[in-house]
Amino acid sequence: MNRRTQSDGRGVGRLLADFGHQLPTIPAAEPSAREPRLFQPVPRRGLRRPDRGWSPAAAPVSVWRMTSDQAPVLWPFVTSPAIPPRGAQIGIDYLSRTSFHADPNGWVLDETIPVSNPNMITFGKPGMGKSATVKAFVLRMLGFGYKALILGDVKDEYEPLCRAVGVTPLAIGQGLKARINPLEFGPLKLGWDHLDPAAAQERAKIVFARWATLIRGLVGSQKIGQIPVPYGPSEDVVVDAALRMLTGYTDGHTRLAETTIPALWHLLDTPTDDLVTVCRYASSRHFLDETRLLRDALAKLVGGTLKGLFDDHTSIALDWTAPIQSLSLSRLEGLGDEATGMALLCLNSWGRAMRETAAPGDLRIVVRDEVWKIMRLGLDAVKSLDADLRLSRRDGDIQYAIGHKPTDLESVGDAGSQAAQIAKDLLHLADTKILHGQDAAVAHHLAGLLDLTDIEVGWITDWCRQAPGRAVWKVGEWVYKVETILHPLERRHLTFTSQKLLGAR
Fold it and tell me: Which of 275, 291, 315 is the last residue of a domain?
């Protein structure tokens, strides 16, 4: 048998087919389609096609090395990260396209951040989102253990915020039953009965020092024409001696009795022989002649425009441990800026008392809205604010001052006066500046005070005015372009300040 015969034999398939059976067939495999490549390799000289960038010679490749600070100049999509994400999340930093967080006390503790104090000051035209940013910051910092003190809500803006956290704000004004005694001990009376004599004496010194600052500010805020009522060492001695007598401190009592402004005025108006002797006056007549201006200034709190507000014992209960505390002064608007400013001085005295008895680690945000009302009360009021800002780092407070423009500070006193110089220096006591939308003139004025660049001035006059909540945040020497982002509930119920305008439509 040859090979051809062997190859022509019938296989198993043919044999089965002869008997009417067919074996299942295996379908032929289809050729697999090649997946398209995302990137095609290109020769070093390019593709030899029209408009393909072919070159007759290979281009040399150079290697450049640079730091991360230099790289964004040549490759702008490489940006440095925003400020560390600690504290209250405010919104978006448009320079780095990341979230922006505010933590003033944390910034002070971080040596890599050019901040030496936790104070904040903000400027902006009305309607540019100043109040919304403040309220959002306060609300979000409550979750980090902070407490907030609104030193006089002159427009009832913070009432919804207080009610949102379960606190009922208090109000004083003409016709209301509420009274506030500026000479009340406030939180200083907490635990007084459990102090030993030495500790009680130290606390008494704090009380008298706070009262002296308050009385000096109240008297100095009033004017004879354009000249503030004088308050010098002699007046200081008289007031201190009278307060010590009224509280029982002169008699050796460690637990001081509460007194009032009317009681102080009455003692000065009808001085005792002991008071005249302690103050080293020749006679009662001599005492009355020398203290006439002092007594007349105090009489304004007893029978003047502020009658019925600060002339009796406190009739409202303040919870000093509440997460937020606010006193409404909106009902004083009709009495003038001077009356409102004097009320703010009284409340500021309470604020100091809260700090002086605070436990270690007790952190507080002190909001000072319409700060210009205090600044215009005179030198002593300016000094009081200056002292609070200077001591904020020691006390752990965040002093948050709110104004419209820098002239709010510069309008204090005569040009070149001590008050005007102190007020101007307040800008440098707040390392965090929040600059909302402004007119060109105000923005250029800010540029001269804060060393703003032309680009930053352009942001303030253009980008910041395009939407409320946009602001240039200047944290030390670092600059951020931030837009505050509000939750719908925050926007509608907590931070909306145009209800009256909305109702007028």
Answer: 315
Which residues have a Cβ under 8 Å from the Cβ of 24 and sit 6 or more positions away?
none
- Provide the domain limits for residue 340: 77-172+316-505
Q: State which of 315, 335, 364 marks the end of a domain.
A: 315
Q: Name the pairing type of β-strands 227-228 and 223-224.
A: antiparallel
Return d(Cα 22, Cα 333) in angstroms, integer: 106
361 and 494 assigned to the same domain: yes
- Residue found by looking up tokens 């009592």 in the block: 253
Token look-up 């008699």 returns 251
- Taking Cα atoms as reference points, which of 87, 83, 81 lies closest to residue 103? 87
Contact of 374 with 426, CB cutoff 8 Å: no
Q: Length of the chain, please?
A: 505
Residue 360 within a domain? yes
Number of neighbouring beta carbons within 10 Å of residue 482: 25
Q: What's the Cα-to-Cα distance from 66 to each of 58, 69, 74, 81, 219, rounded to whole Å? A: 26, 8, 10, 17, 63
Question: Are the C-beta atoms of residues 91 and 482 closer than 8 Å to each other?
Answer: yes
Distance, CA of 133 to CA of 90 (rounded, Å):
8
| Domain-located, residue 14 | no
Among 359-373, 392-406, 460-474, the least confident range: 359-373
pTM of the model: 0.73
Say how many C-beta atoms besides its own lie within 10 A of residue 304's C-beta: 16
> Tokens 């670092």, residue?
478
Mean pLDDT across the stretch 435-452? 92
Q: Is there a single domain that holds both residue 357 and residue 505?
A: yes
Query: Tokens 């102090």, residue?
Result: 195
